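Case study 2.
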Amino acid sequence: MAKLKILIYLFVLTIFFSTSFIESSQVKKVHNTLDEIKACEGKIELTLVREWGGEEATDEAQYFNMPYDIEIDSFGLVYILDSGNNQIQVFDSVGNHKRTIGRKGGGPGDFSWPMDLAIDNQNNLLVSDYQNRRIQILNSAGEYIKGFKTDEGFASSIGVNKKNELIMYNYFKAVKSLFYLFVYDYDGLLRREIVKRRQGKDVNAWTLESIFFSLDNQNNLYTAYYCSPLLEIYSKEGELKKAITFEVPFDVPEIQMVVSGNDRNIIAERVSFGIDVDDSGRIYVVTATRPKTEKEKRMVSFVGSRSRDGTRHSRLVVKDYDSKITDLYLLLVFDSSGKIIATKRLNHSCDKIKVHKDRLFVIDSYLEMSIYQYKIRFQ
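Prediction:
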């Protein structure tokens, strides 16, 4: 009987490791070298169509205070999340202001530092209402439909799939979990967890790396890591299908935590500044060309205020800032197989990107507080 138990145990182990090997072997790995990246320079052309916001904006509605996101609904209306002003500004496709949604507060339809915006297939707005620690769902006119509290702290990034499920990145929830992303229904019920943490369960919570994510029109999920030259593609069921790596022209240091008394500071070098995917399956990522200088790291300070319609708003103040021109950011475009097909140097700051049809939106949330809209054309 003992020998039979041992044989059964060995059989189960064999099946387990065989299955694990098969699953890992199904993950396609694609690597892109610096030489391949350099060879694709200039194979995409970006023509500036419009700058939304900026210090020279003449439209009061475009006098943004940290625009964090931009979304476009099925009618072509443009929704800009004006986070520091606790509003969503709505425009038509040529920049005419249509309406303002929200105000600072804690009631239904009010915001307190909203961090991200998504639009579902009924043109409803889903808002990560960060400091109110909740998700709000509004119709396209800005009328409150429903909402729910985030169960672990603050939700910084959200998306919605074609099944109208909310996908959330919540740093504070992630540090207590083996996963980065969490899928909810509109009543706030957690349906499943996806995208396993790469560092493993014993990682120090304060060194957990943050991620960007995007969805394609087939509900596949694309992730980019802040401090690692790695992209991952997951199926709609949450299965890792492809890992894409790319070389950067500088040594990327490991993420470190520095403890001084009760203060904990993360030291890390940013590699990625956003990810999105177009209708043809091309993957867009903005990466760094070099480490930030000490001056660039000190450029902004959260101390100022901006007056708008008689109301005072806190905002970032830019220090030691001579020009918005920079050589720090490089756009990479990969085909659906994960190979690099085009690169383009961006000459202004980038904190996030969005792709809509043949348009690329580069979001500069802090320095110019602008969104640059480009027309895309591949050479």
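The CA atoms of residues 116 and 163 lie 19 Å apart.
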